[in-house]
User: Which sequence fits this backbone?
């Protein structure tokens, strides 16, 4: 990869930093929190996104460059995400691969011209947008890889991210992990082949393994080290920095959302349930959660993750809202029920709150497996979900103090990981050290 000579010392000269990430809220929220930290430090940030992403970012102090107008006209990404929200397991993973293949083709086609025109010194690339890394390599533009979801860095001792497998020292576990990665390679083969063909067209070296797509300069992961499975060969430029969240607790993309009715909280132990903004298209899951909690002496708050939507009627008397101020509610909660999206999981752990995970697709089984491994929560596969099983787990999690103690241990580690401040320091220094 090319390297831009930089005579300046860290913190003395403003940077122009670009960002490329999927337009999903779960990927944009951490990237925007990091962008706002960089802006507070005097740098300029340019976000390259499609129309639906630009709409979510309007009004923030960011430069926006809208790309992909023909492939992704307004409303098309939101429609695709709505379809993904109805899927689970391998079907959801296959749909995600198909969507990312379209996004990758668009980035290869349009991003080079947009990046050249933006006059950047550095590009921040979401780990699931490797096409942007290839474009940066072609342009000789330094780039940083950021794992806003679960890191996909592979090694023999770590189960593939799309599985709920626990790590093991037994020899057979490495064979199991290898077979899982073979399956993952088959599922993602169209993405890999398209990317390799584009590299050949641009005269770039053919890649021999997927880890070559990660930045040789700096790699950041927004989870604490203790939450990940033990790794044996992380690159020296890989850093666990903890959640990329605004230190104030505000969520940058939570604007134009109806105010939360705080006056309706009645003082009973609070359970907050959310299936995020992607895997929220299955109303039967919300109904099962409501039915499970109805007989318990708790207050259930459910966010359906769709701003502007009409909250459905659910069993019992849960407080159901279209969208919620997650961090503020989680901080008041005794338990969080989640699909094991990384941002919700990290927010709960950052507040010392245990979780009950119902993983649905993509990397959620891997996040849930880590949650169980560290002892800060329990897992109920969506295929086994019934109100009775869920109710029994809720009662156990509320009663057994060991889950909260484990969550508080991770809370302490998150507090010391550095978050957006540490990430910004590493970014500011990476060009000089690189």
Assistant:
């Amino acid at each position: 990869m090319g390297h831009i000579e930089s005579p300046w010392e860290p913190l003395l000269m403003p940077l122009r930093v670009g960002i490329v990430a999927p337009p999903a809220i779960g990927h944009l929220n951490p990237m925007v929190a990091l962008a706002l930290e960089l802006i507070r430090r005097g740098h300029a940030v340019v976000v390259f996104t499609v129309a639906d992403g630009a709409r979510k970012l309007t009004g923030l102090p960011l430069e926006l460059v809208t790309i992909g107008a023909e492939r992704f006209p307004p409303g098309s990404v939101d429609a695709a995400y709505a379809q993904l929200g109805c899927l689970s397991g391998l079907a959801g993973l296959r749909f995600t691969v198909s969507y990312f293949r379209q996004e990758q083709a668009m980035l290869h086609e349009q991003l080079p011209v947009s990046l050249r025109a933006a006059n950047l010194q550095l590009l921040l690339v979401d780990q699931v947008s490797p096409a942007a890394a290839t474009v940066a390599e072609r342009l000789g533009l330094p780039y940083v890889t950021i794992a806003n979801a679960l890191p996909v860095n592979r090694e023999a001792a770590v189960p593939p991210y799309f599985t709920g497998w626990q790590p093991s020292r037994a020899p057979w576990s490495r064979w199991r992990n290898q077979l899982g990665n073979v399956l993952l390679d088959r599922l993602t083969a169209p993405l890999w082949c398209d990317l390799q063909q584009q590299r050949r067209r641009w005269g770039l070296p053919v890649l021999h393994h997927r880890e070559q797509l990660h930045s040789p300069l700096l790699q950041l992961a927004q989870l604490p080290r203790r939450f990940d499975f033990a790794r044996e060969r992380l690159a020296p430029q890989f850093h666990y920095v903890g959640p990329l969240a605004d230190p104030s607790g505000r969520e940058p993309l939570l604007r134009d959302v109806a105010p939360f009715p705080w006056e309706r909280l009645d003082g009973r132990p609070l359970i907050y349930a959310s299936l995020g903004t992607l895997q929220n298209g299955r109303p039967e899951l919300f109904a099962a959660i409501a039915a499970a909690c109805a007989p318990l002496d708790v207050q259930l708050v459910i966010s359906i993750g769709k701003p502007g939507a009409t909250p459905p009627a659910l069993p019992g008397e849960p407080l159901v809202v279209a969208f919620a101020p997650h961090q503020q509610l989680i901080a008041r909660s005794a338990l969080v029920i989640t699909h094991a999206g990384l941002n919700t999981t990290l927010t709960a752990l950052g507040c010392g709150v245990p979780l009950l995970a119902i993983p649905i697709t993509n990397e959620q089984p891997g996040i849930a497996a880590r949650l169980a491994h560290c002892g800060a929560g329990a897992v109920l596969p969506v295929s086994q979900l019934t109100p009775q099983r869920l109710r029994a787990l809720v009662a156990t999690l509320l009663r057994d103090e060991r889950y909260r103690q484990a969550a508080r241990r991770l809370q302490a580690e998150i507090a010391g990981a550095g978050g957006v401040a540490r990430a910004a320091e590493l970014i500011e220094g990476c060009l000089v050290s690189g």
